[in-house]
Amino acid sequence: MAMGKILSSGPILLFLLYLVALVSLPADAAVKRYQFDVQVKNVSRLCHAKPIVTVNGMFPGPTIYARDGDRVVINVTNYAQYNMSIHWHGLKQLRNGWADGPAYITQCPIQNGHSYTYDFNVTGQRGTLWWHAHIFWLRATVYGAIAIMPKQGTPFPFPQPYRETNIVLGEWWNNDVEEVVKQGNKLGLPPNTSDAHTINGKPGPLFPCSEKHTFAMEVEQGKTYLLRIINAALNDELFFAVAGHNMTLVEIDAVYTKPFTTQAILIAPGQTTNVLVQANQAPGRYFMAARPFMDAPLTVDNKTATAILQYKGIPNTILPILPKLPLPNDTAFALSYSAKLRSLNSPLYPANVPLKVDRRLFYTIGLGINPCPTCLNGTRLTASLNNITFVMPHIGLLQAHYFNIKGVYTADFPDRPPQPFNYTGAPLTANLGTTSGTRLSKIAFNSTVELVLQDTNLLTVESHPFHLHGYNFFVVGTGIGNFDPAKDPAKFNLVDPPERNTVGVPTGGWTAIRFQADNPGVWFMHCHLELHTGWGLKTAFVVENGKGPDQSILPPPKDLPPC
């Protein structure tokens, strides 16, 4: 089954499970059970074969299907040589950080030969999310889609598509990714960029040895298809387009949007985008293509991944047409595309934007250089928020918070940078040292938070996609240059701003987000470029318990992996 290995049991056990489900869940909810075996498998791409870490031997891994209101139970057994943890990206995990998955933030990893059951409810969410490994760079191959259907009998707020297809964008390295990273860290430099981009694990026929490694979807003339597009790449924001066909964007990060038509989309690592495509062109074969957006002077893997949209009855001998993608450095397209994103904000799907703000935070995003006697130039590249490079602890921060274990972290992350400067002026190349620490920010339960993320020209400006665990947030404003607290808030959209879990901070610019801290726990916030996360571009919020009976963190499960 495409749904991964759903557990099969004897009829009596199944009946008992059914009774338990009836007692413990609302009438229209169900329990969806999955078994994830983390195992190494030999895979060949681009004329290179190598062992990769997979779930159930699949690359990408199995899709998780659920409905809004379901309980999802996923038992992960680790047969690989690496420690493992899996994050269910975009699921809010209300009061249940134990199921969130980032290693050493909400749990210690699952060791070789051990299992852990991620047990969570899907509450008030529907749309496309995804799951991925959240330790080292293992998410290069350990990832898959999550498709959440609306509650039974609830239609989509857009025309019902005839069929749907997952389009999961990724990156491929010919060499062992963990070795590539180790080599980079040893030198104190970025590791080699990927050798290809992929669509559903396949690079497409523009790459060597890839004729057979090409994803194709068949369409029927006149029918409408829903594409669930996920950017699972490690380090690249990507443009995506379908030759000859417009796309109607209807959802981002599992939140419905005001629909608009576009020839291409821009999607950052960690983000999802749902589009409708009508098969209304001359029957033929059309390339779907993805390639990076990069408007800073940095090296990326600039190769184009392709897949094929093929009309029924058309022979494979017809050569597909390539789409016109925006230029790799097309900042104007990136900004105008982002400006079109608006929440649907209908009576059924309101945008409940916090209008009053209890806590204002201002975080600068910087690259830096710290001494490293053993590195190539005697220095190591690093990254920081408010000049603090985050140091990962050796036990889960959520355990430390819940059990009040001292000495693991300090709750003194500053609300603003140590000293203001011209953040996006000429490149700053002196005094690039950062301070290090496991410093978190404490947030009062149910308070409203406004966070401005400000890119800086420390070494270079660059676009950074930031992901907040445990929450969606509203992207109320964005701009180029330095954020002006006197003038910019007047331009905020407080009516129908996009609601997301991952947002791109523009190159040499800023983004303002708001959220209500109604989910107690320890919630990771980090750049979703794996390179920068590894360099320390991350922190976490400790959201305190409320006073009500259902406003505190749930107790940890019995099988939480030991540290």
Write the layout of secondary structure elements.
Layout: H1 11-24, E1 31-45, E2 48-55, E3 64-67, E4 71-78, E5 86-89, E6 115-121, E7 127-133, E8 143-149, E9 163-172, H2 177-187, E10 196-199, E11 216-219, E12 224-231, E13 237-242, E14 247-252, E15 255-262, E16 264-267, E17 272-278, E18 285-293, E19 305-311, H3 331-339, E20 359-371, E21 379-385, E22 388-390, H4 397-402, E23 435-437, E24 441-443, E25 448-455, E26 464-468, E27 473-480, E28 499-500, E29 502-505, E30 509-516, E31 521-527, H5 530-535, E32 538-543
Parallel strand pairs: 1-4, 3-8, 9-12, 11-19, 20-25, 22-23, 24-32
Antiparallel strand pairs: 1-2, 4-6, 5-7, 7-8, 9-10, 12-17, 13-16, 13-18, 14-15, 14-17, 18-19, 20-21, 25-30, 26-29, 26-31, 27-28, 27-30, 31-32
